[in-house]
Automatic annotation (TrEMBL), chains A, B:
It is found in: Membrane. Keywords: Membrane, Transmembrane, Transmembrane helix. Pfam families: Voltage_CLC. The keyword Amino-acid biosynthesis does not apply. The chain crosses the membrane at residues 20-42, 54-72, 149-172, 184-206, 226-247, 268-286, 355-377, 397-418. GO terms for molecular function: chloride transmembrane transporter activity. It is a multi-pass membrane protein. Gene3D superfamilies: Clc chloride channel (1.10.3080.10). The keyword Membrane applies. One of its GO terms (cellular component) is membrane. Its main location: membrane. This is Voltage-gated chloride channel protein.
């Protein structure tokens, strides 16, 4: 071995040492993160059911926006920056992620959902994981290099627990940092934390929604587990171009709504009030509350929601666009929560529409849309391909990969996380 | 959008343009590569059956080594560098990958297998793909940037076709270039070529071996498709440390055998002759031909081979080590073929042994070993996790990820490809 190789030599004992250290450090991170995520998911479910029972709560949206504004004003400091702060701190540990971020984002997200804002969960979970990891780092007085790793672990744990997808959580935490690459620093610490946090969350008796793809493909005995059909692949590619463009539209619209409301509404506290009023107005215009809240399931059996997007009949051809607008206004005008569940909604309903348009299996395209719009908006095609497997099983891996890779190409370079490093052009 | 964002803007039309161009370019690459890989797989099967029928062929191994030496001497030029030449050219297009590499490596690999050398297939397929892609690049007079992409496509196509795993092929082509990262340049062109090449190969009526994992895990309704068991995870981690160390041992032993035979056998043409003699001697010492050739299946129902490693009863506890030694000698002393199928053999048999030792499901640990030893030796943990899904289905994704990631940590920085860039330490 040459000297350049020697420099890179790592003894198995050093690796075991590293892994034992990170297994131990991952325990507090995942116990706290997993438990808070469980509390968050439980509160979210309660808030959603309360809203179904008392639809009048929607009228409280403008006031709740004011409350959220005020909570961040008195308690927030730099916590307002949310996911971007966590990503920034991983790139360059500095100011630190404040521990108060966790309760703040948890409470304000539940408020957003209780009063019918259209938002998600992953942002909240990532911020809970990130801030609790930062707190553990402080307690154990970790150095900068270790702070980077523990923050990634927090992101992995929060993401893995909130969606019940541990492998996706680990890869997402590494892939989200930059556009165009995954770096394997902290591969195992992230996977360990993500697995632990998911177990902790499940141990609190939290159930994740199950999805089913009935479509089994053409049985081709030469390719075990892969049932591929050329025409269907072409349809998936066309649909995935639409998924990528929808990701881009969502990112650009949210950016612009944020920018324009700052510019035209001089008093910052009026932004969420105005946002709440617009959501109320839109809800009454379209005469349905299907686009408020999380949208995984709905108050009625025939609601437009993610679960129903997996079969034909309930989704309107413009459902994806309505959810996109509702969410861009909610998140662009000061309410809290993640973007990912709405992206699942947008993708699954757009997939439903594209399937009917192209004559493809509805459940398959809903599943591909579910992961591909998310892949495009966050520039994480590999994590999202893995998510397809964790949520829907491995049978349709080829379609998942095509969907996520294609959406990644067509989603532009904006993305929903401004702090993501832009390492390279998507095409050269 | 700020100016730093503008710089990265890519219009959907430019992306479509890029993808149409690469879809068209991938057609000749995948038709030629897929067909040659099909011819190669067919020849391999014929050679293997001939060897089963006429065991006396083993005595021809030293002479066949001389023939291979002579073939590369008169026709080889820089083709001798094999996979490393392809990787070097992707990093820095220069001297070019000669088209003669394809027939040379195809013929010499079949010779190696016919006379009972212990070798694999992926190296041959990657070199066929790489050299044919380089030839297409020459015909179309592509520039350096496009040569890089088309070479990656060739690698993806060769790999995807030879194992029937298109998604793995695409990710492998990107992941193998450097230790510690995947860069997404050419993500879709690689996937397109890999899918096409696999179809072409299948259309020639080539069948890939099917593996089955009967173990279904503890049914845990909270995690759809993922059936996780803490104790079993711990067992998988321990086994995977062994897998990683086995990868490292293989890489180091092959390097050293190559180095020492160069040093002590002054006449270069005598190296493969000596190698052939050692393989004959070893075969007669252990009284079985189970460790010659590919090892996917065997001449007898109770042979030690990859398929039989998936259930208890046929594999010896030292089978993995015998295959490791046979392969290191074969490839370290001038015979041709890939390393990956022997790595599958080493991993599956070591997994079999570890399963009996640890009291874990034999088929599960054989499958994890199959992909994890390969992940460690090539430093491609994500491609190998995906390969687990493509070969064995998505149910055991968590174990596949744990196995491949852990083996990656414990396999050192040597790897079987000397040209792989060493971007970072595995632990920090």
């Amino acid at each position: 071995m040459g000297s350049s190789q020697q420099k890179f030599y790592t003894s198995p004992l050093a690796v075991i040492n590293h892994l034992v250290k990170w297994t131990l450090l991952s325990i507090p991170v995942s116990v706290i993160t997993g438990s808070l995520v469980a509390l968050f998911l439980w509160s979210l479910e309660e808030a959603t059911h309360l809203r179904y029972e008392f639809p009048i709560l929607l009228w409280g949206l403008p006031a709740s926006g004011l409350l959220i504004y005020w909570l961040y004003k008195i308690g927030g400091k730099n916590a307002e920056a949310g996911n971007n702060l966590v990503i920034d701190e991983i790139h360059k540990p500095g100011a630190g992620v404040p521990a108060r971020m966790a309760p703040l984002v948890l409470i304000t997200t539940v408020i957003t959902h209780l009063f019918g804002g259209s938002a998600g969960r992953e942002g909240t979970a990532v911020q809970i994981g990130g801030s609790m990891a930062a707190w553990v780092a402080k307690v154990f007085k970790l150095g900068n290099q270790d702070v980077k790793i523990i923050l990634m672990c927090g992101v992995a744990g929060g993401f893995g627990a909130v969606f019940g997808t541990p492998v996706t959580g680990a890869v997402f935490a590494l892939e989200v940092l930059a556009i165009g690459s995954v770096q394997y620093i902290a591969l195992l610490p992230c996977l360990i934390t993500s697995l632990f946090a998911n177990w902790v969350c499940i141990s609190w008796n939290i159930h994740h929604t199950q999805y089913n793809i009935l479509f089994e493909g053409s049985h081709d005995e030469w390719i075990p587990y892969l049932h591929v059909d050329v025409l269907l692949i072409l349809k998936v590619v066309i649909a995935s171009i639409a998924f990528g463009l929808a990701s881009n539209l969502f990112a650009v619209l949210t950016h612009n709504i944020k920018h324009l409301s700052k510019k035209f509404i001089k008093k910052a506290y009026l932004v969420p009030v105005a946002g709440g009023l617009v959501i109320i107005l839109l809800t009454y215009l379209i005469q349905t509350t299907d686009y408020n809240g999380l949208g995984v399931s709905g108050p009625f059996p025939d609601s437009v929601n993610i679960v129903n997007a997996f079969h034909a009949g309930n989704v309107e051809y413009y459902s994806w666009l309505l959810k996109l607008v509702f969410t861009a206004i909610t998140l662009g005008m000061g309410f809290k929560g993640g973007e990912v569940t709405p992206l699942f909604f947008i993708g699954a309903t757009l997939g439903n529409t594209m399937a009917l348009l192209l004559g493809a299996p509805v459940d398959l395209l809903a599943a591909v849309g579910f992961i591909a719009v998310f892949a495009g908006a966050t520039n994480t095609p590999i994590a999202c391909t893995l998510m397809g497997i964790e949520l829907f099983g491995g049978t349709h891996l080829v379609y998942f990969a095509i969907g996520c890779f294609t959406a990644y190409y067509f989603s532009g370079h904006t993305g929903i996380y401004a702090s993501q490093k832009k390492l390279m052009q998507k095409i050269v």
